[in-house]
Amino acid sequence: MSKKILLALLGILISDAALADMLDTREKAVVAKKVEINQVNAALGQYVNVKDQYFYGDQGLIKRNQAFFTQVAAWINNWKQGMELADVGSSGQIPGAMVEIETLIRNQRIALDSLIAQSRQIQNIGADSISQAEVVTMLPINLLAEYPGIAEGVAQYGQALNNSVVDIRNLAADSIAELEQIYHYSPRALRAKMKSNLTARGIPVADALAKFDDLILYEAEIEPLLLELESVENAIDAYALEFAWFQATSELERGQLLCSQVQAKINSSSVSSARAQKATQRQSSLCNTMVSLVDGLSNTGLSKAEMAYEYGQMNNFMYAEQCREVESSVDCEKLAVLRGISYDSVMSMSDDELRFYELGWSSLQKAN
Question: Which UniProt keywords apply (predicted)?
Fold first, then answer.
């Protein structure tokens, strides 16, 4: 082969290699650009998802916040109307007024506990929203540099949404602190108003005020614990109806500890003997009922494995229906996994595995 031909061939090879390198560089640039586009699109899609589901959705922050403050307004109005109970015109009206005042204070405590639970839900949804929006707020703003402002704009949308979420969470949390103060001082305002009215009418106040003080002490020290005990008893009742053995027994352990705490508080409290006796009777009834409910569950003739499987099947249909909805609050991927566990597999599980299986079903409903 002549030297000229050899040089020509070498030149062709070099040109081909250079062209290949150039094409490879361009291809890498195209791939990199597609990655950036996909990253921005994913962030934008997540922003829309978070906004639609966590912020504006049927179970989102906006609607929950509106419902929360509607109930807050009603709760405050109940106190305003309750102040009229202090307007007793004669000594004969005092016993009846005291019964109504006691009912008012108790109902307001129950309503306040409900508001506290709603506030916590708002906190949880807000935390989930911020977590889900991280892919948006942490989006590098230098992506798609040839189109200035696009990536930065998406990130700013996410941050603005997060700021609104934080404002809603803080407002709900701060409101609870204020409502606790209102609950603390409102009965004392009622007492002061009653004393003023009775004194103005020349009616002896010592006995009425002593009863009022006894009521305030009882509602502050004992009634909240009894309400918590009632909540535990209600939870055990619900678990027993669904054959949720592990959750029922876990709640019973908490309830029995609370039973001891309630009785100790009654024994150490300075409330009247009459109130202490009624509180003890109520505590005893609740504590005995909790034990009876779990005993009844253990006497169904079902094994722990059979109860766990039955619990799963009872929830299966409900959750499956919810997963057919466009906007579901159920963890449908976890549901698919649980539905794939066979009867025979459940029957062969250990207690720890059965507890995990049961709790898996109970955790399908997302915090919302």
Answer: Signal
Residue 272's nearest CA partner among 221, 327, 345 is 221
Cβ contact 258:229 at 8 Å: yes
Contacts of residue 276, defined as CB under 8 A and 6 or more positions apart, other chains included, come to: 266, 269
Helix (H) or strand (E) holding 107: helix 94-132
Contact 132, 52 (CB under 8 A): no
Of 233, 223, 189, the closest CA to residue 113 belongs to: 223
Tens digits of residue pLDDT in 270-306: 999 999 999 999 999 999 999 999 999 999 999 999 9
pLDDT digits (tens, 9 = 90+) for 23-57: 455 666 655 567 666 776 677 777 777 778 777 87
Q: Could you give the CA distance from residue 238 to residue 248 in angstroms, rounded to a whole number?
A: 8
Domains in the chain: boundaries: 1-221, 226-291, 302-368
Question: Which 3 state secondary structure label does DSSP give 326?
Answer: coil
8-22, 174-188, 347-361: least confident range = 8-22
Please give the Cα distance from 318 to 90 (Å, whole number).
Answer: 57
CA distance linking residue 195 with residue 207, whole number of Å: 11
**Would you call 264 helix, strand, or coil by DSSP?**
helix
DSSP category for residue 147: S
Phi, psi of 89 (to 5 degrees): -95, -20
What pLDDT does 29 receive? 60
- Cα dihedral: 180, 181, 187, 190 (round 10): -140
Residue 13 structure tokens: 């090879």
User: Look-up: residue for tokens 């062969």?
Assistant: 348
**Mean pLDDT for the stretch of residues 161-173:** 86
**Closest CA relative to residue 105, chosen from 207, 191, 205, 204:** 191
Q: Which of 325, 324, 319 is nearest to 57 (CA)?
A: 325
Its pTM stands at 0.75
Classify 289 as helix, strand or coil: helix
Q: C-alpha dihedral over 40, 45, 47, 49, to 10 degrees?
A: -170
Helix (H, G, I), strand (E, B) or coil at 133: coil
Phi, psi of 326 (to 5 degrees): -65, -45
Both tokens of 362, joined, read 């109970």
